[in-house]
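We modelled the chain as a single entity of 173 amino acids. Its sequence is:
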Amino acid sequence: MLEFAILGFLLDRDMTGYDIKQMMVLRTSNFIDASFGSIYPMLKRLEKIGLITFSEIVEGNRFKKMYTITQKGREHFIEWLQTPCTFSPFNQEFLAKLFFYKHLKKNDAILNIELFRGTVQDAMEKLSEIERTIGDGMDPFEYASLSFGRTYYEMVLNWHEKLIDDLKNTSLE
């Protein structure tokens, strides 16, 4: 997925690795994000197989690599983009742990669920901040992915709130 996110960003404009990371933080972090430690090796791989090139530029007394998508990269990206998506169930750690919370004391399980819910709330707040700061500048597809993330996080928050209430009213110990 990282490969195609990078190629998609480079279809819009030439970018440095730092620019790509910033695009992920500001535009795609609700469905794809990567560290610099993942982005730069991927850029090197994409360059090696001819999907992107780079040129070195000087900006403020610093050398930077400016990456550009090649025609081969465009074709590869469009081929991927035109392939219909298939649905697969989520592979999420919290569901695996939740499944086995019966092995914890009820209060410990509830605490872990509340802590997880807090991380989802933090992620939701980041999406809301993105929407407030750059939402008007997004194209309809970018905005739709942001809206999906917000709706998904709301569902996760509501589901966990109900789960916590249900657990508090059960006789489990």
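As a brief sanity check on the tokenised model: The first strand starts at residue 52 and ends at 59. The domain at 2-82 is CATH 1.10.10.10 (Arc Repressor Mutant, subunit A).
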